[in-house]
Amino acid sequence: MSAFIAEVALRWSDMDAFGHVNHARTITLLEEARAGLLFTEAGHRGLEGMAEGMVVARVVIDYHAPLVYEAGSLQVRMSVRDLRAASFLIDYTASAWGSASVATAETLMVPYDLAAGRPRRLTAAERDFLAEWQVAVELADKEPTGA
């Protein structure tokens, strides 16, 4: 399938003293993009439970270039990887509109039962929804080189 793409507006308050978007704000921008997938898009398909209990168990981010406020917005491409019974990874590629990647990231997501106060398993419908956003690995990347 294809990646989910979200456009997130940059705010003046996202900048740090050096004129770049602050690293903590970058994570918040990725969170806003993720909400577009897990809450808004899932909600449109009748999967409101994802918005009622989904937590980040781990976040990893690699910065490739400074993100500046003047870029106006951040385009975030997300795909799902390592889909398991009670967790999944979201991969992100964040780009300032019309430029190269400024960051790549991943979050380990865990569905959570807020009333019970513990993790839960994904429902079959949630797994099917998330599977739609898994991106196939290019075969060319897996072919051996040389003879």
UniProtKB/TrEMBL annotation:
Family annotation (InterPro entries): 4-hydroxybenzoyl-CoA_TE, HotDog_dom_sf
Which leading EC class covers this enzyme?
hydrolase
Q: Does the keyword Aminoacyl-tRNA synthetase apply?
A: no
Q: Tell whether Hydrolase is among the UniProt keywords.
A: yes
Task: Name the Gene Ontology molecular function terms of this record.
Answer: fatty acyl-CoA hydrolase activity
Q: Which UniProt keywords apply?
A: Hydrolase
Pfam families assigned: 4HBT_2
Query: By its UniProt entry, which SUPFAM superfamilies does this protein fall under?
Result: Thioesterase/thiol ester dehydrase-isomerase
* The enzyme's E.C. designation: 3.1.2.-
PANTHER family xref list: 4-HYDROXYBENZOYL-COA THIOESTERASE FAMILY MEMBER, LONG-CHAIN ACYL-COA THIOESTERASE FADM
What protein name does the entry list?
Acyl-CoA thioester hydrolase
Species annotation: Halosaccharopolyspora lacisalsi
